[in-house]
């Protein structure tokens, strides 16, 4: 059963929006209409259906109209034309009172910058949606608690939003949206303001929650990785119009046009690994402090036959081998200068995998990874091969 | 030729028109103005007397305590209030001080009661904004003395016309800052409030006004300061208080008493300013 059905949904910004609508129906493009009339097309005759309990991702670059589209769905922005059917009712034609009811009971929203009220405590934020429905304090507090527990923020009820990290704040945003148990969840770039690691966690958590809750989720993002991770189906938008709708596989394998293809390419490019992804923490000795004796001792501890040498500023100097070091020790030499070898390749931290492979495949030593001359890591051959193997695995999975 | 052009249109009788209009207002709305004059005047008199009937030491202590707790248990403002108010009492200006406080507080309260709703109206409606904005400019730039003339026509002399003149002069900042504060509420919060199905009133009282509170308080602080600055001007139409002492010192060229009364106003201004600012910065 289709939970939400959108037909020809259009938004034209500007005073003579009807004129823009006419031009759109004649098939004129966004740029033409802007040049001709000065009207901005937000969304151009979007039509799609979202199934029950589906995560439907709307993706596009900034300015593609995705945020406008999601706001047309709950009428934070008034549509110029088109229909939004939810459970058989056309939201676009609803009067204010019915619209409020839908917003209160059926649809809630999570915002990019969280949209939390800074003067309310966490629990007061979560119960906002219930409070404005006039639900009595005890009941709403209980429901808000349950919702907060669901997102794993029990114990933070009486904090204020600015006391929480970004990830936690967005959990509050999610808890607030879930508190009135809506059937539809609109998430506008909900994880875009979070740092990459937290973002992954939140995506996983959303998927876990979704398994339990089975909501219809409309998720806006500009990040194809995110779309592929969480979307059951993905819609790609450009210039306010929908370019392609499909499952992640369909989008990757059969991009509908150049625009989608470029998107997909971008993903591959972003998946290219660099030195920083596969390097290990190096074992080192300090040329300013240590002599052959310490170097030998460290190599014995780690079970290696050579060790990298740095100075007190962590600047990369070279390496010494165990053989040279033991000779030097016998000769009672106290410093490493005499036995320092420098014939080891140095690469920058952001060198792509491809180049590393070319360097490493015909030399016996590991490769030192530097950043501004400072040693940050080491790459051994095995790591490169392992990483390449993983990468092709990912590719064959996607194909 | 050019001369002829500028002389072509005879002088437009703005002055006569205004005089006629104020006269018309005075006689037409006498049924409104007279009771206000009588009852509000009595009320102000009563408030001032009530304040005066409290022993000064108790007033000073209450103010000091309030200052202490309002500033987060710091002694600075409390100590200043004790010293400042004691000095005013010491200079024999206590009764004038009570009149001035009454005038300032009542004028400010009325300004806020009138100003905040207009500010909200401006923030919600472009039309209201376009109409009210030039009116506010007019109210603020017209020399305050000018308001005294119709004030006397409407309400005679004394404290009531003083309050009326202050009201016109001091209300604009509250209106402006309320408007600004509400317009500055981040879009996402307004959207969040809408997206959960708030009614207009719920959005206003649960989101917009709390968010705008700091800005509105800054406006109210300005309003109170302007009302205080009207104290001297209002004394020209017989409003009692510190301003009257300043005025009479001016008329007799007595630099000493003039300075003392002026100092009283300064002390009061500092105390009121710090009080309203601290309400503002709290939380």
Walk me through the structure:
The complex is a heterodimer of chains A (399) and B (283). Helices cover 42% and strands 23% of the residues of chain A. Chain A has 399 residues and is an alpha/beta fold. Chain A has two domains: 2-106 and 182-271, Rossmann fold; 275-390, CBS-domain (Roll), CATH 3.10.580.10. In chain A, the strands form four sheets. Chain A has a six-stranded mixed sheet with strand order 6-7-8-3-9-10, with helices on both faces. In chain A, strands 2-1-4-5 form a four-stranded antiparallel sheet, with helices on both faces. Chain A has a three-stranded mixed sheet with strand order 11-12-13. In chain A, α7 packs across α8 (166-179), α14 packs across α15 (322-330) and α16 packs across α17. Chain A is elongated and about 95 Å long. Residues 391-399 of chain A have low confidence and may be disordered. With 283 residues, chain B is mostly helical. Chain B has one domain: MetI-like fold (Orthogonal Bundle). Chain B is built from 13 helices and no strands. In chain B, α6 (94-124) packs antiparallel against α11 (200-234), α10 packs across α11 and α11 (200-234) runs antiparallel to α13 (255-281). Chain B is globular. The interface between A and B is medium-sized, with 30 and 19 residues. Chain B: One of its GO terms (biological process) is amino acid transport.
Characteristics:
heterodimer; A: 399 residues; alpha/beta; Rossmann fold; CBS-domain; 2 domains; 6-stranded mixed β-sheet; 4-stranded antiparallel β-sheet; 17 helices; 23% strand; disordered C terminus; B: 283 residues; mainly alpha; MetI-like fold; 13 helices; 85% helix; Quaternary amine transport ATP-binding protein (chain A); ATP binding (chain A); amino-acid transport (chain A)
């Amino acid at each position: 059963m289709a939970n939400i059905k959108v037909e020809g949904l259009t938004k034209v910004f500007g005073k003579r929006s009807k004129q823009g609508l006419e031009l759109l129906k004649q098939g004129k493009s966004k740029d033409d209409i802007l040049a001709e009339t000065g009207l901005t097309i937000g969304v151009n005759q979007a039509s799609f259906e979202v199934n029950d309990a589906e995560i439907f991702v709307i993706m596009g670059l900034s300015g593609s109209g995705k945020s406008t589209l999601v706001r047309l769905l709950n009428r934070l922005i008034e549509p110029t034309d088109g229909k939004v059917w939810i459970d058989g009712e056309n939201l676009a034609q609803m009067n204010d009172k019915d619209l409020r009811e839908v917003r209160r009971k059926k649809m809630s929203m999570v915002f990019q910058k969280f949209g939390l009220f800074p003067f309310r405590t966490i629990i007061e934020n979560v119960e906002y949606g219930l409070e404005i429905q006039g639900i009595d304090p005890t009941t709403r507090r209980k429901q808000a608690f349950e919702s907060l527990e669901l997102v794993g923020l029990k114990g933070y009820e009486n904090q204020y939003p600015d006391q929480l990290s970004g990830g936690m704040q967005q959990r509050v945003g999610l808890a607030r949206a879930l508190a009135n148990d809506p059937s539809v969840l609109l998430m506008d770039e909900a994880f875009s303001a979070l740092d990459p690691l937290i973002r992954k966690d939140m995506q996983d958590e959303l998927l876990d929650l979704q398994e339990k809750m089975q909501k219809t989720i409309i998720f806006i993002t500009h990040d194809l990785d995110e779309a592929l991770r969480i979307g059951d189906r993905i819609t790609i938008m450009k210039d306010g119009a929908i370019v392609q709708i499909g499952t992640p596989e369909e989008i990757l394998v059969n991009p509908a046009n150049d625009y989608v293809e470029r998107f997909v390419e971008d993903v591959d490019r972003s998946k290219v690994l660099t030195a920083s992804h596969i390097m290990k923490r190096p074992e080192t000795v300090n040329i300013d402090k240590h002599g052959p004796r310490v170097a030998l001792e460290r190599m014995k501890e780690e079970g290696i036959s050579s060790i990298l040498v740095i100075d007190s500023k962590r600047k990369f100097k070279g390496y010494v081998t165990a053989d040279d070091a033991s000779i030097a020790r016998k000769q009672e030499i106290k410093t490493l200068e005499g036995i320092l070898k420098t014939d080891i390749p140095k690469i920058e931290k952001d060198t792509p995998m491809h180049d590393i492979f070319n360097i490493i495949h015909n030399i016996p030593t590991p490769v030192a990874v530097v950043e501004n001359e400072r040693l940050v890591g080491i790459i051994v051959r095995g790591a490169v091969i392992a990483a390449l193997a993983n990468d092709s695995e990912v590719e064959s999975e996607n194909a | 030729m050019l001369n002829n052009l500028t002389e072509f249109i005879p002088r437009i009788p703005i002055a006569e028109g205004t005089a006629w209009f104020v006269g018309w207002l005075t006689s037409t709305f006498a049924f409104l103005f007279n009771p206000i004059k009588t009852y509000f005047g009595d009320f102000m008199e009563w408030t001032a007397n009530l304040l005066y009937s409290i022993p000064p030491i108790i007033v000073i202590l209450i103010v000091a305590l309030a200052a202490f707790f309002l500033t987060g248990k710091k002694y600075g403002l409390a100590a200043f209030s004790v010293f400042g108010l004691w000095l005013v009492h010491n200079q024999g200006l206590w009764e004038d001080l009570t009149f001035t406080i009454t005038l300032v507080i009542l004028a400010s309260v009325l300004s806020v009661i009138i100003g905040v709703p207009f500010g909200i109206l401006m923030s919600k409606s472009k039309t209201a904004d376009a109409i009210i904005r030039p009116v506010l400019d007019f109210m603020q730039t017209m020399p305050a003395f000018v308001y005294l003339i119709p004030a006397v026509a409407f309400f005679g002399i004394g404290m009531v016309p003083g309050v009326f003149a202050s009201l016109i002069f001091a209300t604009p900042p509250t209106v402006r800052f309320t408007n600004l504060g509400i317009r500055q509420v981040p879009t996402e919060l307004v959207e969040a409030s809408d997206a959960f199905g708030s009614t207009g009133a719920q959005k206003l009282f649960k989101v917009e006004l709390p968010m705008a509170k700091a800005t509105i308080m800054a406006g109210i602080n300005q309003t109170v300061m302007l009302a205080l600055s009207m104290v001297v001007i209002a004394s020209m139409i017989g409003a009692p208080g510190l301003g009257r002492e300043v005025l009479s010192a001016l008329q007799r060229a007595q630099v000493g008493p003039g300075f003392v009364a002026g100092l009283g106003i300064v002390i009061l201004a500092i105390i009121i300013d710090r009080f309203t600012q601290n309400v503002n910065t709290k939380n």
